[in-house]
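Input structure tokens:
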């Protein structure tokens, strides 16, 4: 197997496990053992190990030496509102930083994400929707030019489980993402912030 094939295989496994974690199929604390997962996906343990490392980097999995990997904890109902507010504050800060930059912002990664997000919503491809939604918000952090924000943001995302289900809510989320990108392009900070805050619930 070539390196490219191995990466594609890993990404497919990551997509499936990410969807199952975020949508609650794999509950908090569920062990993620390499051998059973390798049998399930009919692969060697290498791609499974790589997939677990990727999910750990996203805050969805806890991977501790000598204790193995398990699905990360979920914020309880009493904690969730505060965590949502912290997440929103981080992304608001990132968006303000992004739009205060003097040089022209390359919005092509966000536009490409929007294009794929719309297709995934139309197809109700939940795995792709989960991946692209997280990717969109990570792109905002990346474009802000402050990498440290992402390291704070990821664990927050890992503790949230997002309600992806109805087609209407998927398209509403896409519309809010579109509003954010359009407002950034037009230099409309207040509009961009309003759309971002509406999108993070």
């Amino acid at each position: 197997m070539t390196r490219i094939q191995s990466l594609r295989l890993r990404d497919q496994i990551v997509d499936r496990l990410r969807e199952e974690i975020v949508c609650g199929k794999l509950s908090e604390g569920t062990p993620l053992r390499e051998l059973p997962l390798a049998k399930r996906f009919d692969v060697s343990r290498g791609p499974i190990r790589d997939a677990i490392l990727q999910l750990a980097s996203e805050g969805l999995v806890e991977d501790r030496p000598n204790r193995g990997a398990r699905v990360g904890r979920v914020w309880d109902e009493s904690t969730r509102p505060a965590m949502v507010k912290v997440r929103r504050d981080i992304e608001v800060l990132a968006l303000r930083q992004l739009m205060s930059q003097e040089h022209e912002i390359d919005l092509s990664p966000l536009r490409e994400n929007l294009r794929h997000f719309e297709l995934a919503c139309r197809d109700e491809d939940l795995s792709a929707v989960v991946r692209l939604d997280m990717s969109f918000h990570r792109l905002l952090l990346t474009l802000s030019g402050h990498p440290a924000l992402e390291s704070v943001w990821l664990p927050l995302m890992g503790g949230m489980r997002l309600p992806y289900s109805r087609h209407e809510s998927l398209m509403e989320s896409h519309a809010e993402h579109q509003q954010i990108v359009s407002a950034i392009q037009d230099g409309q900070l207040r509009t961009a912030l309003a759309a971002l805050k509406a999108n993070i619930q």
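The chain has a mean pLDDT of 88. The two ends are 42 Å apart (CA to CA).
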